[in-house]
Amino acid sequence: MATRAPLIQRTAIPGLGLSAGITLFMLSLVVILPLGALLAKGASFGAANVWEVVNRPRVWAALWLSFRLSFLAAAFNLVFGVILAWVLVRYRFPGKRIIDAAVDLPFALPTAVAGIALTALYAPNGVLGSLTNQIGWQIAYTQWGIWMALVFVGLPFVTRTVQPVIEEIEAEIEEASATLGASRLHTMRHVILPMLMPAALTGFALALARAVGEYGSVIFIAGNIPLRTEIAPLLIVIQLEEYNYDAAAAIGIAMLVISFAMLLAINLIQIWSRRRIGHV
Amino acid sequence: MSDAALNLHRSAGRPARPFRRPTEEAAPARIVLIAVAVGGLMLLVGAPLVIVFVEALARGWAAAVASLQSRDAMAAIRLTLLITAIAVPMNAVFGIAAAWFITKFDFRGKAFLITLIDLPFSVSPVVAGLCIVLLFGANSAMGAWLVANGFPIVFAVPGIVLATVFVTFPFVARELIPVMIEQGRSEEEAALTLGASGWRVFLTVTLPNIRWALLYGTLLCTARAMGEFGAVAVVSGKIRGQTATMPITIEMFYNEYLSVAAFSMAALLTGFALFTLMLKTVLELRHADQLAATRRH
Amino acid sequence: MHIQIDEIAKEFGATTALHPVSLSIPSGALVALLGPSGSGKTTLLRLLGGLEFPSSGRVLFNGQDATGLTVQDRRAGFVFQSYALFRHMTVFENIAYGLRARPRATRPTKAEIERRVLKLLDLIQLPHIGARYPSQLSGGQRQRVALARALAIEPRMLLLDEPFGALDAKVRKELRQGLRDIHDETGLTTVFVTHDQDEAMELADLVVVMSMGRIEQIGKPADIRAKPATEFVRTFITA
Fold first, then answer.
1. Interface test with B, best of C11, C56, C61, C67 (most B CBs within 10 A)
2. What is the pLDDT of residue A1?
């Protein structure tokens, strides 16, 4: 950093003022000002009061529930997503293209639709729920139901981040492992999985971040019993319905902090993996 | 060579099992993995998809169609189309401007700007709605002033549009930026040296190069815009016939035990989601070259 | 180890990569498979290593039929054109990989693995790079690490696919001598593929000239120079 670069380098291409203007105006109106309003509300409410709200048992329980089930759902998707990605890249079977397209359905399907569909399936009188209830396993209106909904919304992330990495593995790497005497299973565990890990963890973190904030697909199936099946975003909605803006803002800030921590984690994973593996 | 010698020659050294390439798994492992993947996806994604249509048609086709023609249902459909028609073009314009600004110019803080654009993906929709309520709600100074001057934002269409734009904010920009980085600036610079105006360069050089990526991003944006629930639930106030969008109306019907009505509207949105996926798959197959940059990411 | 190739042929679908070819490689020889791209030389090398299965014909190692032997059981030290080093492992871990992959019963102890890896690092004259990752090495260093990794499994033969192909001219000359030295020290039967006739002539005891999936001539470098068997060989070695 000998000489500081100018703020904006002049180029021959026109449209600087217009494109910068639209970008910054929209960014301010849609993202910066509203988020600023949340932080301002938190500031005027006071750190001690924010903490007092977050520290209530019901809020803690909701935050912990959201985070814990999101983690478990993302962990399931980590394993299942890697298998799915492997099968979609490496194997040929009838209907593969449809399966590949279906992976994106949770992205495309409105969350409320997913919510009522999952509830209809897993409710005690639903098609699958009546089966699981016979073995004493109730899914809808329990934490299992929340987990199921979070698995659904997070499903595409790991698969979509891992797929391109599998496509880029050179056959020679796997062949080298075989010529060195390694069984296929050994090659999978010690060569292929470590190569997929950085991308898979990125997908895991994305799925986790999405699940922590998820609302629409969860509230129908959750049962929403305080301290047991009540997720953090629902608490915000409840506070708002009672016009309790300060408490809503406090919980919102807590969720924002969790989101940013996860965003940071994603970036650290990427930096770490890039440094470790580099580009050969 | 006698037949016996030939047979001996053939059989010698042939493996008991068929040869397996060193880059492949054994057939049983392959079958198990395919079964897990396909079976898992059928259960997790296929089953919810099917149940939407099953429940919608539980009382027959006529009942489903009739439920969509009720006053509340029609109002919700109209409102969702209106919101989408406003929010998606806003995002497309923003996406193009942001991609142009970021890829055609060099400035400090570019990485930070990209992080800010991506930010809405990491914020819970409910928190997004909360932010808008806090900024423009009647309890804030700006909100009170806007309401007094007859332009309420929260519990009205502008708030729903803002919430929708927030949750779909990065879609178009994110598709365009990698493509435009890959294509560089030389074509635009060449057009400028030939005397073309700025708008002409954009319309005749840039736009044809990014049109499929733009369509792709707009498609994803539209699907998400029509289906947004959490953010809209917070800012809309859920006023029947006025601020209830299709997903909000699904919730209302569902809570009133109007199962056929709820699932019929859900089926309508599902149909649109399937159409989106189909279009997306076609785009990926036909125009992989132009979308490659984004898919690799 | 003596290698006998007996009427081996290979088809990929409708295209014939290798017409039936036969070749005898004496134990301890350093053999070059020389030919332009598409001549079938790499296919032949991969058949020897067990990476491909022949459409017909047999391979014999020391007189024993090895055609059905899996890659893992062949114990052929294989050096790939791209080196195929494992990016997420250090140089040490790369070289130790084959020993650690053995089933528990035949796996050397930790101390023994370390001793062997350090010895191999000495052999390739890069004693201090064990802790580095492949991305931190030069092209020539990577090639030597790939060679050490192949030698670690105590192979019965050494197979190299264009071992100098990705290197610049100066490094190439140095490493040629390095391969010769390692061959002489280990006494391993060594087969390498090249399209560079200088490389083949200078390095190999025996040169196999190939074209269009057939063997054109087998002989000592001097004999091939003096008496090219076909028009193809004449033009190819003078090119």
1. C67
2. 42
